[in-house]
Amino acid sequence: MKMQTLLIAAAVAAVLGGCQRTSFGGMNTQQQPAPLMPAPVGGVQSGQLPPPGMGTGANSATAFPEAPTTPTETTAPQVASANAPELTREALIGRWSAGTGGTTCDVFLSLTKWTGGYRAASRGCVGNAAAISAWDVQGKQVILADSSGNQVARLYQSANERYDGSTATGQPISLSR
User: Whole-structure pTM over 0.85, yes or no?
Assistant: First the structure.
């Protein structure tokens, strides 16, 4: 009986001992560390900046380059070149990389009938190219249209697997693979 009592007492002591809070060498673990000293800062100067292009020092001639300019296209949509090859719808099926306004995106052409011709879809496109949802071939030109059948762009074959043209607003556009 003494052995059982001793074992029960040891078990109770172990359970109660596990619930006891301990501290590490008398250190208070809730104490925050001392704040750091801020880094030294140099003096602040005030005054007028020189006008653009009037730099100071040895590199004053190269202070600011001229801002780039981009030509704006305001011409009517391009007409297919007289020597452009005849097109077939089957040759246009699949994924194309469309370039317009300095950006590129994906355009997918299928042979599913749709308003304005055949079904098309664009991914990652902005501006006029984002509205492409239909396409068709008219003579030597590829016509891209929106979901209402309104023309978005006209393109003609300019190289193998490349078509160039312009949007209805006159912006250059290309399809290539």
Answer: no
